[in-house]
Amino acid sequence: MLKKSHILFALIALFAVTLACANPLGGLAPAQPNVETVVAATFQALTASAPVPPTATLTPEPTSLLPHSMYFLNNDSTGLIQVYRLDKDGKSVTQLTFEPTSVDSYDVSLVGGSVVYVSNNQMFMVDFSGAGRRKLLDGGSRDENNLFLSNISNPVWSPDGQTIAYGYKGLNLYSITTSQSNRVLDNKIRDDGNGLIFPEELYSPAHYSSDGKKLLVTLGYYEGASSAIYYPNGNTLVRLSGNEGAMICCGEPSWSPDNSSLYSGSPSMGMFSSGLWKVDAATGNVTTLLAGDAGNGTYNFADEPCLAPDGQLYFFFVNRPSTDEFVNRPPLQLVRSAPDGVTGRTILNDSTYGNLNEALWTPDASFVIAAIAPDPNIYQGGTLQLIYTDSQKGVISLLPFARDMKWGP
Q1: pLDDT range class, residue 62, cuts 50, 70, 90
Q2: Contact indicator for 302, 290 with CB cutoff of 8 Å
Q3: CA 266 to CA 298: how far, in whole Å?
Q4: What are the chain's domains?
């Protein structure tokens, strides 16, 4: 499963720096004058010398294509990865960071639009405009042979904008109010001597639930990865149950609107199985909605699920036969179903989407922004297409390339 494998490789490299990467109107025949016209002309002549009070000029509201501004990573003119913002008009792009080394990871606060990011193993923050750059944390020099020992990874804002979770020797919570960090989970490291150091379990935040009461965490191992749910208030970690846990990882699961569950899909088969799953956030119990092997000689491939506020589940999906040992990101179709992934499942348009690397759903699931790789060997980002779930509205091309998309305020 190459999509997961690529992410897992980064985890096995143990949260190392992420790879780098535009009628004139015709004249009218004169009409015969009428009484109203003569009266109007006379009135105009009588009042021509009177001063005319200034009138306010109304500036029309710009047309908004997007519900919020959208943030993403892309290369700058020198080839370094930086943070950018696409405004709600879907056209205006602003570069927000100008680091001398590439940005590895970032997040945007839904309260004010401040951006936190990691570059050169340092964590910085800038405001909505990209100004006010300040350093929050310096991880020091990195051991290139054991990057997990001192590597800062994946900062994540809490919904209220008061806390930044990040990975550094474990799971840490940085307080905006006090500028202090608290490590709540220590990485588990095994030292076999003679410079042989192995990670037994590493912790890196993925994303908060919308109520801020739960934090999805990626668990990294020497071989593989999984997920867990961290509860900040009780300082407890809920692990996923069942073998499916190894397939639900790397920040890909999405929260349900009520934050009680997570949905995760896999469009690849090989290292792990393809399929679709639901996770109970309270217990960690995993329910298989669509098994990879459908049992009739065909296989289910699902990706980027989103449970909408209307109770419908939207995701990319295909069921197809396969004799290949490895299948990676096959052409998928956009579908809608009941929350079980099966009942009433309907294909929403005739298009197929192969090499889908990433998708960003609107909160109401009225459309999804898909990053389609132009080449099957590209595993991060791609050309952005805005795809409406109402097929009559069609598809809009947004940007030639972006990755790691996030909604802003």
Answers
A1: low
A2: yes
A3: 15
A4: 2-16+66-407 (2.120.10.30)
